[in-house]
Amino acid sequence: MESDVTNRYDAGMQTRRQVLGDAHVERAEATKVAFDAPFQTMITEGAWGTLWSDDTITRRERSMLTLAILAATGNFDEIPMHIRATQNTGAAPQDVLQAFMHVAVYAGVPAANHAIKLAKQTYAELGIEL
């Protein structure tokens, strides 16, 4: 069982680096302390080692789903991070817009409007012209 957990953690860390970039992961690791280490391990194994490492759907599709879910549930703080990650997952700005348009219809225009605002700001920071 330990080798499965180790493999899931290692796979998660590799996927996390591929999606979010080494700089982001290094910053997150640098701020980790004993208090939040179990949480960081859980998300590395679960979110990154199990979910994001699965190839049933593409990382582009996962980006679109993740952004839509974040917007629909009002978890706006992570939207800029996942917008930046689209540079590594292949989700184009128009893909992201379509995901947020779905949010507007199924979860509410204000949530989609705020997510689009965050996306525009993040793309501008990245130097991506829309």
Query: Which term fits the overall shape?
Result: globular
Number of helices: 7
User: Which sheet architecture does the biggest sheet show?
Assistant: none
* Overall average residue pLDDT: 96
Ranges with pLDDT <50 over ≥5 residues?
A: none
Helix content: over 70%
How many runs of DSSP E, i.e. beta strands?
0
Category by helix and strand content: mainly alpha
* Secondary-structure element pattern, one letter each: HHHHHHH
Radius of gyration from the CA trace? Answer: 15 Å
Distance from N terminus to C terminus (CA atoms, Å) equals 48 Å
Strand content: under 5%
Overview of this protein structure:
With 130 residues, the protein is an all-alpha fold. 78% of the residues lie in helices and 0% in strands. The protein is built from 7 helices and no strands. It is globular, with a radius of gyration of 15 Å.
Concise summary:
The chain has 130 residues and is an all-alpha fold.
Task: Describe this protein with a few key phrases.
130 residues, mainly alpha, 78% helix, globular
Topology:
Blueprint: H1 2-20, H2 22-31, H3 37-51, H4 59-72, H5 79-89, H6 93-107, H7 109-126
Helix pairs in contact: 1-2, 1-3, 4-5, 4-6, 4-7, 5-7, 6-7
